[in-house]
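Recall from the previous lesson that a structure prediction takes nothing but the amino acid sequence as input. Here we apply that procedure to Glycerol-3-phosphate acyltransferase, chloroplastic from Brassica campestris. The sequence below is the only information supplied.
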Amino acid sequence: MTLMPLTFSSSIAVAAAAAATVTSSPRFSLVSLRGFKKLPLRCALSVRAMSELVQDKESVVAATTSSFSNTTPTELNHSRTFLDARTEEDLISGLRKEIEAGRLPPNVASGMEELFCNYKNAVLSSGAPRAAHTVLSNMSVAFDRMLLGVEHPFTFNPYHKAIREPFDYYQFVHTYIRPLIDFNYHKAIREPFDYYQFGHNIVLISNHQSEADPAVISLLLEAQCPYIGENIKCVAGDRVITDPLCKPFSKGRNLICVYSKKHMNDDPELVDMKRKANTRSLKEMATLLRSGSQLIWIAPSGGRDRPDPSTGEWFPAPFDPSSVDNMRRLVEHSGAPGHIYPMSLLCYDIMPPPPKVEKEIGEKRLVGFHGTGLSIAPEISFSDVTADCNNPNEAKEAYNQAMHKSVNEQYKTLNSAINHGRGIEASTSTVSLSQPWN
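The prediction returns the following tokens.
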């Protein structure tokens, strides 16, 4: 069986978009939760409460690093060049210092400096209080984690659990991504999630727009569903667990790691290894689903959406029918009750991907401040959709098309709300937009 991954690296509805060159953006984010009912709130930290935290560098380190006695030898021997930075100039000169010390390859340092500039432009464009301080604080910690990853490379298992100590990578990701999302426009919220409390499995079949997608989902839902962010498991492509600028963020997510079809044949000598690795990951996923109470996010397109070359418009990329069907069969054969929902996500402008799929690791990373949107529609019944099909292949294609059609329809509503300025008025009979963090 083949599953297509997310690359970082939905109809609940939340939308986001941003680019480094953006000078203005829609001043809102939206959520539509029609598919799920209410879930008990656990691990609660509201968006508003988190946004009011003082994000100075030392408090970030203190909040994300446990006691000294639990610190690993790797952390103790690690350079503090970036954590000791007090100005932007200190941070940039630290890159040169680490290159000269032989701890940081020049190409990686160049990518880090580019990321800093783009992140700075995006956060400053938000107009938020202490924005410059937030940039220095968050980028100091990001640089520190990237340097640590180069000095002591981390290997991801087929099923990777988010690392919470001695350094809390999960909280680090949220602290870094939060300033890129515009939460300023407020409305009422509908009922969100259910089923976890009953041991059911939930799978979100979604499009995929940026490396920030998992954090965007968590942040847009945390006010009413804080349990989602810490427990969602993302099917992730190999690029987000090999790129040195991306790995620190991936370490903060629960990942089921697979090799994408799009990159399966990049190196013919590695094809067999990649296939075996994917088989191990599928076995891990099957084991998880058998235990019940799993929330899994998968993008069956096998990669991020790209704009239409002729119009520049963004739409959900086509889904791979085999990926959707394999996920369905895994859920059905798990022995635990399961539900599959079509989810649409609009957030490409926060961290837009390259215009075309690239083979080489080390893509140019643009960053922006923008409104965001996410939508989850009601569950689609396989038996209902395929009742008139004559064979398994026809049924597989019909179910895939039904899923993609729902994701695409939700996306159009999000696009109208966020990028065409209609806001809540873009709501339809099937996608009711709201803002739960108010």
